[in-house]
Amino acid sequence: MPSIKNSTVVIFGGSSGIGYGVADKCLSEGAIVHISSSNASRITQAVSSLKEKYPEGQVIGHTCDLSLPDVEQRLVKLFEETGSCDHIVYTAGDALAVRPLKDLDLQFIQKAGHIRFDVPLLVAKLALRPDWAVVAGYAAGLHGMVPGLALDMKPLRVNFVSPGPVKTGLFPDEVAEMLAKKTTLGKVGTVEEVAEAYVYLMKDTNATGSCVSTNSGSLLM
Question: What range does the record give for the signal peptide (predicted)?
Fold first, then answer.
């Protein structure tokens, strides 16, 4: 597979969890890494930690709040700061929205999908305006959006990683132990393991519209 050395990688949600793991892995392979987060102090801390681990590495932090109504303008500004890039990794998320079906309303549904669905489409728009991606995406979530984007944005490649339970600090240890019992491997994934899937898709220049699932066998149980 081709090297990603000297490639420029922009990682949304790169200050913690899976995004931080992808940044770490990319730096270890010689890539130039831009990480963004809505939290300025977390960005500062993440950049400092990565620079300490990779003194010769190039990592730049950006603050970009994806939850605000003017998110598109904020994304434009971010890409002006990063310049051209070779790979975009989207791992941004917010607190998981859980509510009984009987208590749902339109505002809650739209807010729940904003970071995980709406913003990735806006990120894609800045590279190329999608035509069918929105229709397919609303019909089938990310599994439908990504193949649609791969068609609309060709010859650019669009892929996604579908992780199972991953130990990122999102849930306490006792929950991780409970989830581990529901996998065939008897464990939850680590950030380092999942990061490998993202870098694999960067390197496999024959992969597009594809999903890599890394889930400890949780879908088999």
Answer: none
